[in-house]
Amino acid sequence: MATSQKRLALAFIDFLSKSLRDGTISSEDTESIEIAKTCIADTFRVDPSDQAALKDAIGDQSLLSIYGVYEKLKGKTSTAPMPGASSSKPTTNTSKPSGPTPTSPEAEEFKSQGNKAMQQKDYPQAIDLYTKAINLSPTNPIYLSNRAAAYSASHKHADACADAELATSADPKYTKAWSRLGLARFVLGDAKGSMEAYQKGIEYEGNGGSEAMKKGYKTAKEKVEEEEKEGGDEEIERAASPRGAGGAGAGGGGMPDLAGLASMLGGGGGGGGMPDLGALMNNPMFASMAQNMMSNPDALQGLMNNPRLREMAQNFGGGGGGGQGGGMPDISALMSDPSLREAAMNMMGGGGRGAGRGAPQ
């Protein structure tokens, strides 16, 4: 029996065992799964307890992660090569894949030509050549990482991110891929994801990581902290504002809409149809009301919703009977209405049921 078939059998037994441990498969099915594992082991003549054989079969990965790479590559490599190119210099990192890498002499030739194109800054050509190598060896992390570099250099950062993610899935220990993933995520605005990628690279490099990897991590971390601080400042500003966004009867930032009130109290009056606000605010009662409205936009909303006031405003709207110069309503006539007088007293902060509605003294 071929060695590759035995490796696949071990990988599948490992997949079933992990699915039981992580809860993917219900514990009620434990007996059935154990029987299946025994049948597979007997049929393919493998020993699931042989950790060395299992390590040789899947390395540090799992059957699920390997299949995940296949699923991603299945759609990506079947399309025509995308023009564009990218990125970092191929000689900036000396990391090597951790295990046997699927390749072929023809694929290696395409990779070498792609490297030359990168050195000449012919990024579209480099992408085309790396793509040809990937079509022959879809899970080769070097080819994927190199194409990610070419995409980055041609500002195709989303494509670079996708290739770098595939490369890290194919071989998590190939640290150059983590570095390129960190760069792509950072440029795309994902500072936290970038920091995580650089952190992984540092962990796999060992000994505290290379200077380049640590610098990338530091830059991403500073950006994350900056974004968190900005978010905190915005929350503080919103909390300090009486109303973050004004509703009906309120202007931007929770300010009452005095123009709206003026319009209700005699549209079609002075210049542009607006009443004489100067004369209006010279009235002590309205001056007090305005001060109260500035600190209590809800009071203005209640006043403007008063049906009696709306009815009177319609009568005053044309600047006709009962109105003063410029279409201004007769304040004394307004205040003769009991409900409007009570509303005005409430807005002035004194008397009636309006007293005590503000913050405790």
Q: Can you tag this structure with a few keywords?
A:
disordered C terminus, 361 residues
Explain the layout of strands and helices.
Blueprint: H1 3-21, H2 30-44, H3 51-58, H4 63-76, H5 105-119, H6 123-136, H7 141-153, H8 157-170, H9 175-187, H10 191-205, H11 211-240, H12 258-264, H13 277-281, H14 284-295, H15 297-304, H16 307-316, E1 323-324, E2 328-329, H17 331-335, H18 338-348
Helix pairs in contact: 1-2, 1-3, 5-6, 6-7, 7-8, 7-9, 8-9, 9-10, 9-11, 10-11, 14-15, 14-18, 15-18
Q: What can you see in these coordinates?
A:
- Helix 1 runs antiparallel to helix 2, helix 7 packs parallel to helix 9 (175-187) and helix 15 runs antiparallel to helix 18 (338-348).
- The protein has 361 residues and is mostly helical.
- It has a two-stranded antiparallel sheet.
- It has helices at 3-21, 30-44, 51-58, 63-76, 105-119, 123-136, 141-153, 157-170, 175-187, 191-205, 211-240, 258-264, 277-281, 284-295, 297-304, 307-316, 331-335, 338-348, and strands spanning 323-324, 328-329.
